[in-house]
Amino acid sequence: MKDIRFTCSYALTESALQSYKEETLSALRTLTEGTGAGNDFLGWLGLPKDIRSQVKTIQQTADRLRRDCDIIVCVGIGGSYLGAKAVIDALQPSFAWLEDRKPQIVYAGNNIGEDYLCELQDLLRNKNFGIICISKSGTTTEPALAFRLLKMQLEKQAGKEAARQRIVCITDARKGALRTLATQEGYDTFVIEDNIGGRFSVLSPVGLLPIACAGLDINALLDGAEKMMNCCTSATDFDNNPALLYAAARNHLYRQGKKIELLVNYHPKLHYVSEWWKQLYGESEGKENKGIFPASVDFTTDLHSMGQYVQEGERHLFETVISVAEPNRQLVVPDDEANLDGLNFLAGKRVDEVNKMAELGTRLAHMDGGVPNLLIELPKLNEYALGQLITFFEVGCGVSGYMLGINPFNQPGVEAYKKNMFALLHKPGYEEATAAIEQRIKGLK
Ligand code: PA5
User: Fold this and answer.
1) Residue identifier of the C-alpha nearest atom 9 of ligand 1
2) Is 198 a pocket residue for ligand 1 (Cβ < 6 Å)?
């Protein structure tokens, strides 16, 4: 199986790169030896191996849900759904009617949109559906609200006993409302270990169960992850350690004033890989008024919206391009005798060749325009390559975070909006905050 490759020679010189050798190696040691801030959240480093003992049970649960359900709703937000959606969207066919693909995987609890929830309820009406509810804390409002609505709908449609068979919860081993509820209702559960944070949990049951429910090969995903994890240890020298090279290059660019990293793909199926990556890096690095801002674009689509800015706007950007060497399908541009569209110069070429030339042309144009680019090459879009990519980004994130001097494994800033929201919604226990916020709002009028 071919491995993914990382290249940064288009973005910085060899001597600049080498000047980061000691710093990155030291950050990697801090990570792997568990001597840095947030060292109680390093369980993900062992996941590709440690989770193997649970794969059989995860697969059996997935097989049962696949047999019993036409639709499976994954309820969760942030790290509790993005990794699964990233892998599933990347590997499932982009278009399929419900009749053609059973079960269909849909998502809830990742927003509080009333229309979204009503439309989901419409979709699920009179359908055989199941629910995987994922929340590490077991107290997050968005998934809890969606789960309440969907659980009630399922019980009404299928009866309480059948609903019980089609609900699986993934949460803390002991704490949280979801754990209490799952125990009392007798649902099947999987545990998110204390030492694994949400955004680093895709290779735990959090990601593996939904991915297996989509019919994808979770063993191959873990094989890729394990291979990359072995490549990213201190045993691999700096020049051959992709996560170290990535951490070195992006920190170098950041220190040169490139404060925004654009993750670029040329395949729309990778859109949610970027969404997962943005959470991973945004929540890990954006602290203490520091951190590269993670943004993303889908090219060539966004070349017709964001391309102008990238080419000529403020020069605070660098790009990390995900390139896929060989698509899974082939399509050749046909010859057309009339040639009214003037496209016969492309006849006989693969659509992917057109895409690749757009990719190369864009990378060169952006470099000329002062946007350095880093390159990640995936041999193919499959479970193995995605397992490698996930691990590459996770280790790169831990190393980068320590180079930045922050704790990459907490997210204290996420609490601020929750406190205000609960105060505004009069949640018991927030009386003082409610009084303060109401006063503040009056002052604004
Ligand atoms: O990375 C994180 O820890 C967060 O993004 C969480 O995944 C997200 O807030 C959801 O939390 P929970 O799984 O506790 O509902």
Assistant:
1) 78
2) yes
